[in-house]
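Subject: Sanity check before I submit

Could someone independently write out the structure tokens for this chain? I want to compare against mine line by line before I put it in a report. The sequence has 225 residues.
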Amino acid sequence: MRRIRLIIRSLIFLILFGVLHYVLPQHDVVRVVNTYQERQDLGDWTRIFWSKPDDQSANLINRDVQFVQTVKKKTYLLGFVRRDAEEVMVYRNEDTGWGWPFYFKFDTASLQTEVDDLRSTPENPKWAVLTHYGWRNELISAFPNAVAIRPVAGPDVTIIPWFNIMFFVVLAVIIGFIRALWRQFRERSIDPVLEDAGEAWDAVDARADETRGRFSRWLGSWRKK
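---
Independent answer below. Compare away.
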């Protein structure tokens, strides 16, 4: 039973971790190489990795999507540690509108203009911090969605994810508050009921033992005769 609980808790943790890793903002140090627009088919299950900014686009099976081609600094430990090596990364630039995840992004055209203005070459690089959410998966053609971009002095800039820090602090406070409420509710309401049920069961068990004892003594009296 304990192993089943451990498996269920591990699955719940992995699902929550995956959802949070997908929707929470991430920050990449990039050099913009190019931007382009391409028509994408949205008729299969991979549509979940594309935005649905309005009802009209939700009903379309294909639409034009803007992309940002970059060279980014490689990272590890979920992006917290930056390496000296570089890799290619392509982002999509789509409005999220009022839909999930709740970034309320309506400035795709303005963001694309900012990105175009930051294009550079290896000989004269312009570095920027690009904020995004989502995953890059070449197998199913999934692209992270760019949310914002800002120029920085160089590739060694220090990035502090304040939003993510505050999110997890608030989440920890909420979980602690809910746990305290649950423990208080259990001590006041559930534990007394369980104790009463246990005492009632002990009483029933004692009566059953007494009845069995009387029946055994009655059988013994008949055997003596």
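---
OP: Matches mine. For the report I'm noting this point. The helical segments are 2-23, 55-58, 108-117, 162-224.
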